[in-house]
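seq/struct pair 1
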Amino acid sequence: MDYARYAALYPDGPDESAFDRLRWEARRVMDRATTGLDGLRKLEAAPPVNEQDREAVERCEAALVHLLWQADQAESLVSRDDGTVTGRVVTAVTAGSESVSFAAPAVSAQDREARCRETVERYLAGVRDANGVNLLYMGLYPVAP
């Protein structure tokens, strides 16, 4: 997938330089999810040939890029070591004791991983590689690549 295709699907996403980094990470997520016990990387060894299946893989990659970008954005909205806060959303201000409350948008590593897994499952469930093997099948590859 190139940046133009991604931007057509998600016009509010990252710029092209961030896209390249996030695309690499999204592909790693997809590889982990589609590599079985034998270590065969199905997306590399036998990418889908069916048009709908290829589209599902491309849209999964785009959705992961967008998800990872949103998680990066949430993580960047944190307090600095010097006590200042950058880009946080103020939820409450109390003048008497000078209290300010901020929304907590940060995403934990576990939440990020779970959301990635859900995205992969949503897009790639039932999608088959060129040999007819389900991409999410985790057993030994039944066909000689």
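seq/struct pair 2
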Amino acid sequence: MIQEKNEDIIKEDLFMDLFHLIKRIGKDFDYIEREILLKRPKISMKEITPPQLFILRILWKEDGFPLKYLATAAKCSRSTMSGVVDTMEKNGLIIRVPNPKDGRSTLIKLTELGNDIKRFTPPLDTYLMSHCKDISKEELQMLILLLKKFSSSLVK
């Protein structure tokens, strides 16, 4: 019985360590994104925030997603995403166009300015690779696998 209780305490301590580590890594990623944005040459008077950069990175891979998809990808509410998208639209980075597959929804698409910003924004992987030289490709793949497994175990 005492052995079980000690193991429970140890496991709880490990989960707390993991929780704090993940929070710290999240803050580190926010810092890295801000550093990338600060080093980027200014091609417009408008500043780009990390949430806006997140949306741009999604749209640079494949242009044209519904707001709901972007909110799900960012793990935020549609109303929060709508505010970010409104600002980006006002700043000329994206536009809303009717969804040809569903007339009730719109797609978020890049403008020419939104596309141009990609040329002046260093890729996240380039920045991270220069700072994470001691982590091999295999270790990174294993870390991703374990974090996906952990993440999926949290959401039931």
